[in-house]
Amino acid sequence: MGSELDVRAEFPILNQSINGKPLVYLDSAASTQRPNSVLAAMDRFSKTSNANVHRGVHTLSQRATDEFESARVTVQNFVGADDSAEIIWTKGCTESLNLVAASWGGANLKPGDEILLTNMEHHANIVPWQLIAEKTGAVVRPIPISDDCVVDLQTFREMVTSRTKVVGIKHVCNATGVVNPVREMAEIAKSVGAIVVADGAQALAHVPVNVKELGVDFYAMSSHKVYGPMGVGALYGRRELLEAMPPFMGGGDMIRSVSFAKTTFNEIPNKFEPGTPNVSGVIGFAAALDWYESVGKEQIWAHENQLAQTLRNTLDQIPGVRTIGKCENQAPVVSFVMDDAHPHDVGTILDSHGVAIRTGHHCCMPLMERLGIPGTSRASFAVYNTNQEINVLIEALKNVVDIFSKC
Amino acid sequence: MLSELYQEVILDHGKKPRNFGQLASATHQAEGYNTLCGDRVIVQVEMDGETVRNIQFVGAGCAICMASTSMMTSFVKGKSINEIEGVFEVFHSAVTGGEADMEPLGDLEALVGVKQYPNRIKCATLGWHALSSAFKSPIQEEK
Ligand SMILES: Cc1ncc(COP(=O)(O)O)c(C=O)c1O
Question: What is the ipTM of this complex?
Fold first, then answer.
């Protein structure tokens, strides 16, 4: 039995009743909750340092700019990038991936070029590529996976040719918790000079992330998946690539000079950050990473992985229940299907017990199609979850079985 | 509350949907698809003028969606488009929590419990919406 981490009280939102029952929040893969220190950092910024960044000579603007840039260094260090200029603020993973597809893809893809994406990608790492493929004549091809939702490395190796220009990989699968072999895949991709675009949405909170060790060219992140606020995130990009890429959006702050005859663009990262950014969001994101490291990543992972493994073991013993996805060191996301109950019904019944899970296709429709299921029920864990909550979930699932075995 | 949603009649229709399977004699058909949860039903109707002579459906979805579509097919058989659309209006109003006289609903009233679950209302109306579009979608004869 893993020890419970003593952090629950730092998450005031968890202390409430839902439908008359204590809230059991098992939907952290959709969005994690935020500890007091994150809320306080954002509040403090608003009360003491709020001003526009990069624009004023006045003290407050300078203070806001300093905090904003210092947050960039926090993210840089967190993912092991060489240089804070390689971290671009975005509104999240989705925007990060769109930025790469539109800017790098728009400048580099040619008719017949291939974009290889794992069959388990989130729509956020599929649709932007389809859009740019449409414009450039490039072709999007799925990388096959096994019934356990594991990438078939052998087939991948055979698919990679001189036509391969982009390889898109979800670091950790939001629908199954499967951790992809990003480093091995990046090595294979590098052998033909393809760029590697990793979707790190689910990884930051659950597995070690070091962009240099992974060997990726781009790495997309969302703050709200790692104890921070929503609507803010980042893109790591290799300097050399970012410098050669055209801007993604135009506006203020991203230019060096503008005239109607010619505009010259700013250096990275500013080239990719037009307009007033979500400064308090960025402050909250950095505060979340600081908090996460201060609790201790390894301890958090040990705790949440123990919870997930306990749940998987229990579910595997219930007749008519099947867990989806299997790999070593699986992240704490437990997806399952039940013979007699559709995920949507499971979700409603669990909610009446105060248990929040996610049901459906998890924005991975090609994965669901590959697995031949309409969707799954997904319980996902974070630092604040407890063994007692698993008991509540299991009791609630027994209620599901009762209801659907009635007739 | 949960027991109002998952009543026996609903569970029964959900598990053993009536009028399920392809309808060879269909003259009209349409699909209903809920992108949020992936529920999908295809409703096939054999029209006799303005009257539903026969109706079947295929598809997959949650218990509420399957039950509602199943109960709908039993209910509309032999009725005219006008009658059916009148009842759909009452049904829609009832499941969205509006004022409604339940009288014309008959058995369908069992589904009204869904009004307490706003994110499930679409499950209960999907089959009906598909039927409405089917009325406007004659099957083209293959030449
Ligand atoms: C694997 C994965 N990629 C991308 C995203 C999109 O993240 P966001 O909605 O923050 O842009 C998510 C979140 O749902 C995700 O789980």
Answer: 0.90
